[in-house]
């Protein structure tokens, strides 16, 4: 992928026996999906619980690119949850939070608090520059994480995966069996 072209690198994963379809999107100015440690950490955590990786992509970090990609993923029938990694820092090119927030119908504000507690334990004061976002759009939970593989592993394994079934059921609405 090149930042100039905004080209995307895509990997359609073979489905596992899981019930939840996961979209994994790494947002980066440069890089290859083969070298994507953050995406690998997300995939490993969901694979360990036999969830289906419906799609995995690496995209350019522009606002429009991120917003368009997440919007398209929400339209896919095989995607029940979206997890992004990258573009959440404080640099001028970091636009993931700003691109995804307008898409959300509801925010899951407690996620950020839990993430920061875990991140501090994992990466120390470097966590001060971390920004996260979680919420629901079009009945689909979305999590935006920084591109920090150690913190991602901790957050995905300790927060997102354990709550994934319940979050998907709750976001799906009253016809689901995922009560509070």
Automatic annotation (TrEMBL):
One of its GO terms (biological process) is Mo-molybdopterin cofactor biosynthetic process. Pfam families: MoCF_biosynth. InterPro entries: MoaB, MoaB/Mog-like_dom_sf, MoaB/Mog_dom. Residues 23-167 form the MoaB/Mog domain. Residues 1-21 are annotated as: Disordered. One of its GO terms (cellular component) is cytosol. PANTHER family: MOLYBDENUM COFACTOR BIOSYNTHESIS PROTEIN B. This is Molybdenum cofactor biosynthesis protein B.
């Amino acid at each position: 992928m090149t930042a100039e072209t905004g080209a995307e690198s895509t990997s359609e994963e073979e489905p596992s026996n899981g019930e939840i379809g996961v979209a994994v999107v790494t947002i980066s100015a440069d890089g290859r999906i083969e070298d994507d440690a953050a995406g690998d950490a997300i995939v490993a955590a969901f694979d360990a619980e036999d969830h289906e990786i419906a799609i995995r992509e690496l995209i350019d970090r522009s606002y429009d690119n991120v917003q368009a990609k997440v919007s398209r993923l929400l339209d896919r029938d095989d995607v029940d949850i979206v997890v992004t990694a990258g573009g959440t820092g404080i640099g001028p090119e970091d636009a993931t939070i700003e691109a995804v927030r307008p898409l959300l119908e509801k925010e899951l504000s407690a996620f950020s608090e839990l993430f920061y507690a875990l991140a501090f334990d994992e990466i120390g004061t470097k966590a001060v520059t971390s920004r996260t976002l979680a919420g629901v759009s079009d009945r689909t939970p979305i999590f935006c994480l920084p591109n920090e593989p150690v913190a991602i592993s901790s957050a995905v394994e300790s927060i997102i995966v354990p709550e994934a079934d319940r979050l998907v059921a709750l976001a799906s609405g009253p016809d689901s069996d995922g009560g509070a």
